[in-house]
């Protein structure tokens, strides 16, 4: 039982991985550990030696998974294994630190999963089987769920708690049965079909208590966050507090990008007020290194001399005379936690409390000690006016950025082939970049948040084949193609401009999370491109669109903006229409949220109150559908419906009574007469013929007659009784009772599984 409990306890780890390809290897690790433990106890080997054998066997199995090519004869460990172990475990640690969930199954991730499963099995086997302390085994059994919950940041579904909890409860049941059996033979002579002593009432009650406790452990946390976010905290709308499962963390810059885009609670992240009242992309961090698996930040020393309080350097590659400045005021909510400071690029002055430092090459601002959670600060960023013609005439990139064209030696052929195909008619770097952007934003691609996250070479190849993805794939793929075409490129992570609230203030929410590529052009520096389709981002920036040779010379130029601000065309429409794909639907701050809250509360109460009645109707419909043309089954369905109506009306029902006795009892207790009494006698007669007659004729109007009687009976009752029947019909009580009986029977079967197996083995030996 310890092995089974260990196996089911690792089920929550499936939430962290792209697929379940690792499960077979983890299962074999658990089987190996349990088999060695059982063998050691069978031959009375000291527990310490058994534990050592389990650890060595688990290590050997992991070695076969990652270093079989280095093993002697393909099986036995070699002297080169330690180096491979160190490399793979190091790779796994790096992947864990930079990858967002769900993660692809690399060798590094695989060893952590298999080692974790085997480690859980070792501890469970030691505590439950060797030391007979099953209660303590709950700690390792909860390890996988705890790890998953901590990584997912409170967004893990309640159902992942069920497997480890059920395994732990089953382990306790088996141990308790073994302890009670050691007291002696039971006085109860009754035996079940297996020939084993029947489970007594005390054991059954204990299991029921366990089931109730498990259900409560699942249900209470599921409802508690709802109360915390609204009624208890007293906040409304998109507000929220930290530490309640709604906080967005960005210790890893691209971590949780998809989750923030798809999270059901579109919480407020920040507000900013710009002196030009224009929308601006807000950048948190730049990913400038691609290792073939993930985009990540390069090694960036930020010495004390690079404090933002001393001023920021000029943006790399920029060669413009006296660009305008835009002043910003930022207010971060309690829902956003990050070591990276959200800013509009390129920031030149920042006033903020704490020790914040900048990176010279990216102008990213980071702190090793501070957190932006709930912070207020001001910044001044350059408003860089650029035009497409300027990018067309850009000189060759500065040698300082040549390393930002580096790529892994082998890229999937589909990436390079499509990059060449899309840009075959382009004559310069800007034309190539514009062609790539136009291709990604064209009808061939679809914006789809259900796509699996990931920016590895294989994941991007899948993206190019399926032509479906979200901003992470669009930005990462365009940046890789640009580097392949010798254009320095990187990926920026942050937020789209958000929703205009009036007074120059913009609200940025969780669903505004975004990623985009930045390409380098000498003289203009790092320029934002937007390959993500218009359904998400609106119109593309004007400076990224290649001018048409047919454009009249006297046509007025389109307004320009900085490489972080979006085009200001139709700015007067932005307060009404979120053309930039922002959080959507944010209410101006001067309007009260109470009408919407009350309406939603009433709607929720109506849906919640109507659900039991709807379920009851569905159960009755299914009962009649299953009966079909079978006269006996139809009569049984009618009688079940009468039974439910009588109990809904508040009268007792004896399931052991014959139809005639039950009919007289109903008539006496309800005091019905006239047509209702005639209808009841008719139903009693139909049920009697179906049960006791040699053959019974079908009654075409039986379902209609039954519904008429039940409806009339309920309508004759007081309002409070009818309300109670509507909110909790008797059929739901029956369903609950039946489910409890099935669960109890399953636990009874589980109790007897061990003795039954031992008895079967004994018979086979004989």
Please tell me about this protein's structure.
By secondary structure, the protein is an alpha+beta fold. Helices cover 47% and strands 10% of the residues. It contains 23 helices and 18 strands. The strands form 6 sheets. A 6-stranded antiparallel beta sheet has the order 8-11-6-2-16-15, with no helix packed on it. Strands 3-14-17-18 form a 4-stranded antiparallel beta sheet. Helix 18 packs across helix 20. The protein starts with a helix and ends with a helix.
Descriptors:
globular; alpha+beta; about 775 residues; 4-stranded antiparallel β-sheet
Outline of this structure?
By secondary structure, the chain is of the alpha+beta class. The protein is 47% helix and 10% strand.
Largest sheet entry: 6 strands, antiparallel
The chain-level structural class is: alpha+beta
Across the major sheet, the strand order is: 8-11-6-2-16-15
- The residue-averaged pLDDT reads 78
Number of helices: 23
Low-confidence stretches: 187-199, 222-251, 551-591
Rg over C-alpha atoms, rounded to the nearest angstrom: 34 Å
Query: Helicity level, as a percent range?
Result: 40-55%
Q: What characteristic shape results from the CA principal axes?
A: globular
Number of distinct beta strands: 18
The protein's oligomeric status is single chain
**Termini separation:** 25 Å
How big a fraction of the residues is strand?
5-15%
Topology:
Blueprint: H1 2-9, H2 23-42, H3 47-67, H4 81-98, H5 107-130, H6 138-141, H7 143-152, H8 162-181, H9 201-232, E1 248-249, H10 257-262, E2 268-274, E3 282-287, E4 289-290, E5 295-296, E6 324-332, E7 336-337, E8 347-351, E9 357-358, E10 365-366, E11 376-383, H11 388-392, H12 413-422, H13 429-440, E12 446-447, H14 457-466, E13 468-469, H15 471-484, E14 489-495, E15 499-502, E16 505-509, E17 513-521, E18 525-528, H16 534-537, H17 594-627, H18 631-648, H19 659-670, H20 675-692, H21 702-715, H22 719-727, H23 730-765
Parallel strand pairs: 1-7, 12-13
Antiparallel strand pairs: 2-6, 2-16, 3-14, 4-5, 6-11, 8-11, 9-10, 14-17, 15-16, 17-18
């Amino acid at each position: 039982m310890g092995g089974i409990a260990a196996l089911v306890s690792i089920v929550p780890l499936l939430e962290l991985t792209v697929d379940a390809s690792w499960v077979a290897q983890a299962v074999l690790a658990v089987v190996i550990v349990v088999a060695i433990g059982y063998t050691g106890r069978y031959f009375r080997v000291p527990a310490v030696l058994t534990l050592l054998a389990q650890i060595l066997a688990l290590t050997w199995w992991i070695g076969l998974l990652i270093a079989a090519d280095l093993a002697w004869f393909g099986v036995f460990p070699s002297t080169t294994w330690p180096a491979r172990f160190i490399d793979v475990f190091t790779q796994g640690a790096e992947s864990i630190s930079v990858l967002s969930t769900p993660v692809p199954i690399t060798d590094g991730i695989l060893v952590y999963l298999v080692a974790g499963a085997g480690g859980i099995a070792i501890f469970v086997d030691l505590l439950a089987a060797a030391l007979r302390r099953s209660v303590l085994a709950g700690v390792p059994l909860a390890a996988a769920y705890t790890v998953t919950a901590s990584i997912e940041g409170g967004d893990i579904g309640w159902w992942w708690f069920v497997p480890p909890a059920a395994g732990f409860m089953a382990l306790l049941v088996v141990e308790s049965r073994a302890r009670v059996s050691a007291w002696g033979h039971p006085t109860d002579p009754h035996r079940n079909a297996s020939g084993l002593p029947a489970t007594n009432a005390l054991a059954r009650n204990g299991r029921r208590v366990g089931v109730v406790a498990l259900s409560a452990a699942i249900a209470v946390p599921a409802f508690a966050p709802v109360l915390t976010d609204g009624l208890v905290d007293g906040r409304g709308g998109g507000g929220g507090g930290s530490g309640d499962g709604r906080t967005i963390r960005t210790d890893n810059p691209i971590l949780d990008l998809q989750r923030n885009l798809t999270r059901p609670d579109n919480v407020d992240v920040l507000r900013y007020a710009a002196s030009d009242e224009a929308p601006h992309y807000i950048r948190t961090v730049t990913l400038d290194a691609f290792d073939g698996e993930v985009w990540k930040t390069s090694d960036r020393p930020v010495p004390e001399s690079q404090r933002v309080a001393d001023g920021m350097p000029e943006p790399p590659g920029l060669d413009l005379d006296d660009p305008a400045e835009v002043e910003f005021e930022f207010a971060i909510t309690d829902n956003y936690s990050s070591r990276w400071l959200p800013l509009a690029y390129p920031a030149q002055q920042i006033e903020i409390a704490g020790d914040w430092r900048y990176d010279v090459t990216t102008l990213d601002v980071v702190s090793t000690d501070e957190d932006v959670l709930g912070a207020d600060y001001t910044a001044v960023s350059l408003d860089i006016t650029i035009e497409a013609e300027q990018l067309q005439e850009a000189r060759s990139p500065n040698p300082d950025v040549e390393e930002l064209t580096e790529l892994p030696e082998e890229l999937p052929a589909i990436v390079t082939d499509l990059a060449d195909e899309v840009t075959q008619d382009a004559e310069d770097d800007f034309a190539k970049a514009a062609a790539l952007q136009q291709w990604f934003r064209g009808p061939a691609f679809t914006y789809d948040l259900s796509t699996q996250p990931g920016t590895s070479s294989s994941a991007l190849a899948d993206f190019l084949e399926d032509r479906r993805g979200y901003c992470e794939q669009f930005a990462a793929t365009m940046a890789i193609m640009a580097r392949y075409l010798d254009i320095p490129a990187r990926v920026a992570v942050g937020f789209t401009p958000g929703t205009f609230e009036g007074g120059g203030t913009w609200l940025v929410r969780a669903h505004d999370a975004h990623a985009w590529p930045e390409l380098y052009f000498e003289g203009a520096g790092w320029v934002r491109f937007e390959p993500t389709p218009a359904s998400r981002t609106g119109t593309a920036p004007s400076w990224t669109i290649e001018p048409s040779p047919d454009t009249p010379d006297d046509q007025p130029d389109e307004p320009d903006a900085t490489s972080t601000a979006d085009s200001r065309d139709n700015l007067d429409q932005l307060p009404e229409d979120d053309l930039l794909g922002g959080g959507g639907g944010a209410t101006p701050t001067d309007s009260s949220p109470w009408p919407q809250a009350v309406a939603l509360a009433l709607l929720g109460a109506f849906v919640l109150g109507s659900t039991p009645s709807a379920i009851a109707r569905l159960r009755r419909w299914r009962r009649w559908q299953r009966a079909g043309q079978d006269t006996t089954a139809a009569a049984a369905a009618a009688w079940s419906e009468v039974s439910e109506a009588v109990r809904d009306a508040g009268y007792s029902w004896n399931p052991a009574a014959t139809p005639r006795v039950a009919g007289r009892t109903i008539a006496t207790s309800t005091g019905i007469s006239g047509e209702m009494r005639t209808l009841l006698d008719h139903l009693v007669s139909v049920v009697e013929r179906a049960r006791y007659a040699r053959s019974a004729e079908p009654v075409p109007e039986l379902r209609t007659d039954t519904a008429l009687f039940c409806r009339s009976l309920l309508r004759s009752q007081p309002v409070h009784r009818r309300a109670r029947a509507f909110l909790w019909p008797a059929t739901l009580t029956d369903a609950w009772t039946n489910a409890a009986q099935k669960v109890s029977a399953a636990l009874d079967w589980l109790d007897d599984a061990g003795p039954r197996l031992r008895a079967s083995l004994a018979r086979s030996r004989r």
